[in-house]
């Protein structure tokens, strides 16, 4: 279903599409295992996409992308008048878990994702074997 939603047409021959599908699938199941509500799950998947787009489209450095995460998470646990971030549907504990997940899934492997998005030519895969 994610393959269709992400509109991946060359999954069997594109290493990039396969890696991204794996990343989104792992994130989805991680959030489901934590019993995130539908709104929380949607917000989490949006956050995954936002951070990957910052990397792939805007060529953000690790430091800049971490700052963007900080802005998005700002205000969690505060009263409505003090909130400035857009992920206020997460509890403080959930927000900490999200940050931990992003650390181990994206930020620790940032150079690999940079290579994925910035490598000049994708290796041609001739067969599925």
From TrEMBL:
Which segments cross the bilayer?
Answer: none
In terms of superkingdom, the source organism counts as Eukaryota
In terms of InterPro entries, this protein maps to: CLAMP
Pfam families of this UniProt entry? CLAMP
* PANTHER family, alphabetized: CILIARY-ASSOCIATED CALCIUM-BINDING COILED-COIL PROTEIN 1, COILED-COIL DOMAIN-CONTAINING PROTEIN 189
Q: What is this protein called?
A: CBCO1 protein
According to its UniProt entry, this protein's organism is Nyctibius bracteatus
Question: Which gene codes for it?
Answer: Cabcoco1
């Amino acid at each position: 279903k994610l393959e269709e939603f992400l509109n991946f047409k060359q999954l069997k021959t594109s290493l990039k599409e396969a890696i991204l599908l794996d990343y989104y699938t792992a994130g989805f199941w991680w959030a489901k295992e934590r019993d995130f509500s539908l709104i929380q799950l949607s917000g989490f998947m949006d956050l995954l996409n936002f951070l990957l787009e910052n990397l792939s489209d805007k060529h953000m450095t690790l430091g800049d992308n971490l700052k963007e995460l900080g802005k998005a998470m700002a205000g969690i646990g505060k009263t409505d008048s003090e909130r400035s971030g857009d992920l206020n549907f997460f509890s403080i504990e959930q927000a900490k878990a999200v940050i931990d997940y992003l650390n181990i899934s994206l930020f620790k492997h940032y150079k690999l994702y940079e290579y994925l998005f910035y490598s000049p030519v994708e290796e041609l895969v001739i067969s599925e074997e």
